[in-house]
């Protein structure tokens, strides 16, 4: 028995295992209930009494050494495993899918950029407005059809409060607050009570421009609009101003650009005319200057308003206006 224990001692302290499975196999072979060491404990019963003390000690020692060696191996296997599972910091990163700008934001930012290069700064106003800033100060007569329930979303309990139908309200707000010279661009959302279809929406976007100073003329307006059209649609673009009517400008004009889809030859988009309308413009009506506390004898100015969806459609040919608000990622991903 003694020899057995002696010879096992060197075996036990030389245990080797590379994996958890190998380690478990060793544990079962030596230390499980039927294992070699446990069997020795069974045999121990037959040891004569006078030897029990010595052999008992040897056996306990053998078992302790075996257990200690197994614990040692277990620790080293676990350490190795942890090492191999460490993230590889030299691996290249997973590509992160970046979002894209909304086409309307791309175009709005481009318009802002173009006008900021000729000295316009951004102005803002509330989307929930009052009658005065949207209509009254802009020289709309009380019976003007634009105030009609057909076009304007009114707050039911107070018809003086409404959703602005155009960004021209920011003209009013700015002129009331700021002394000329004024040179502002006001991009923003507007609302009209329209049935939603592929070509109309109850919420859309405009960019309003306003320039007020001494001696501002219609020629200044025309030049600014031509510069703008060429910057957005390319150097060959032409503009055309058609006489029109807006309560807040006199004279007023509708602004067309040569159709950039067919280059002016005529196509379905421009209804074969070669021209497409992108907004309205004109010289600020003296009544509007008066209403906002600006001396119309001393100052004059021009104003314009473009539809952002309209310009975006000319650039990207989006066939259905509803796509701008549906947030379909397949649509939005196409714009960078
Ligand atoms: N506010 C007009 C609209 O929504 C557009 C417009 C026309 C704006 C002429 C202007 C302007 O500043 O001078 O239809």
From TrEMBL:
<dbReference type="GO" id="GO:0006432">
    <property type="term" value="P:phenylalanyl-tRNA aminoacylation"/>
</dbReference>
<feature type="binding site">
    <location>
        <position position="250"/>
    </location>
    <ligand>
        <name>Mg(2+)</name>
    </ligand>
</feature>
<keyword id="KW-0547">Nucleotide-binding</keyword>
<dbReference type="GO" id="GO:0000287">
    <property type="term" value="F:magnesium ion binding"/>
</dbReference>
<protein>
    <recommendedName>
        <fullName>Phenylalanine--tRNA ligase alpha subunit</fullName>
        <ecNumber>6.1.1.20</ecNumber>
    </recommendedName>
</protein>
<dbReference type="Pfam" id="PF01409">
    <property type="entry name" value="tRNA-synt_2d"/>
</dbReference>
<keyword id="KW-0436">Ligase</keyword>
<dbReference type="GO" id="GO:0005524">
    <property type="term" value="F:ATP binding"/>
</dbReference>
<dbReference type="InterPro" id="IPR004529">
    <property type="entry name" value="Phe-tRNA-synth_IIc_asu"/>
</dbReference>
<dbReference type="InterPro" id="IPR002319">
    <property type="entry name" value="Phenylalanyl-tRNA_Synthase"/>
</dbReference>
<keyword id="KW-0460">Magnesium</keyword>
<comment type="subunit">
    <text>Tetramer of two alpha and two beta subunits.</text>
</comment>
<dbReference type="InterPro" id="IPR006195">
    <property type="entry name" value="aa-tRNA-synth_II"/>
</dbReference>
<dbReference type="InterPro" id="IPR010978">
    <property type="entry name" value="tRNA-bd_arm"/>
</dbReference>
<keyword id="KW-0479">Metal-binding</keyword>
<dbReference type="InterPro" id="IPR045864">
    <property type="entry name" value="aa-tRNA-synth_II/BPL/LPL"/>
</dbReference>
<keyword id="KW-0648">Protein biosynthesis</keyword>
<keyword id="KW-0963">Cytoplasm</keyword>
<dbReference type="Pfam" id="PF02912">
    <property type="entry name" value="Phe_tRNA-synt_N"/>
</dbReference>
<dbReference type="InterPro" id="IPR004188">
    <property type="entry name" value="Phe-tRNA_ligase_II_N"/>
</dbReference>
<dbReference type="GO" id="GO:0005737">
    <property type="term" value="C:cytoplasm"/>
</dbReference>
<keyword id="KW-0030">Aminoacyl-tRNA synthetase</keyword>
<keyword id="KW-0067">ATP-binding</keyword>
<feature type="domain" description="Aminoacyl-transfer RNA synthetases class-II family profile">
    <location>
        <begin position="107"/>
        <end position="314"/>
    </location>
</feature>
<dbReference type="InterPro" id="IPR022911">
    <property type="entry name" value="Phe_tRNA_ligase_alpha1_bac"/>
</dbReference>
<dbReference type="GO" id="GO:0004826">
    <property type="term" value="F:phenylalanine-tRNA ligase activity"/>
</dbReference>
<dbReference type="GO" id="GO:0000049">
    <property type="term" value="F:tRNA binding"/>
</dbReference>
<comment type="similarity">
    <text>Belongs to the class-II aminoacyl-tRNA synthetase family. Phe-tRNA synthetase alpha subunit type 1 subfamily.</text>
</comment>
């Amino acid at each position: 028995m003694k020899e057995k224990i002696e010879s096992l001692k060197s075996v036990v302290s030389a245990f080797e295992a590379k994996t958890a499975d190998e380690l478990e196999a060793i544990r079962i072979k030596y230390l499980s209930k039927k294992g070699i060491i446990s069997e020795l404990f069974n045999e121990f019963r037959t040891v004569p009494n006078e030897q029990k003390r010595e052999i008992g000690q040897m056996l306990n020692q053998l078992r302790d050494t075996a257990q200690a060696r197994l614990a040692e191996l277990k620790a080293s296997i676990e350490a190795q495993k942890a090492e191999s599972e460490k993230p590889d910091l030299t691996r290249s990163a997973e590509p992160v899918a970046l979002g894209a700008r909304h086409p309307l934001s791309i175009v709005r930012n481009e318009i802002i950029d173009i006008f900021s290069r000729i000295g316009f700064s951004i102005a803002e106003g509330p989307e929930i407005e009052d009658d005065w800033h949207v209509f009254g100060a802009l020289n709309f007569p009380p019976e003007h059809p634009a105030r009609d329930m057909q076009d304007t979303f009114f707050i039911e309990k107070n018809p003086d409060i409404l959703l602005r139908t155009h960004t021209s309200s920011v003209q009013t707000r700015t002129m009331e607050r700021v002394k000329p010279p004024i040179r502002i661009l006001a991009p923003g959302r507007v609302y009209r009570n329209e049935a939603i279809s592929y070509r109309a929406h109850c919420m859309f976007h405009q960019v309003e421009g306003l320039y007020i100073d001494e001696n501002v003329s219609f020629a200044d307006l025309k030049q600014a609009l031509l510069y703008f059209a060429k910057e957005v649609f390319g150097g060959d673009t032409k503009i055309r101003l058609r006489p029109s009517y807006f309560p807040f400008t006199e004279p007023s004009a509708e602004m067309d650009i040569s159709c950039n889809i067919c280059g002016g030859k005529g196509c379905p988009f421009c209804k074969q005319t070669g021209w497409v309308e992108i907004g309205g413009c004109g010289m600020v009506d003296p009544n509007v200057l008066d209403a906002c506390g600006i001396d119309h004898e001393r100052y004059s100015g021009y104003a314009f308003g473009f539809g952002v969806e309209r310009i975006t459609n000319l650039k990207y040919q989006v066939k259905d206006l509803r796509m701008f608000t549906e947030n379909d990622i397949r649509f939005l991903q196409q714009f960078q």
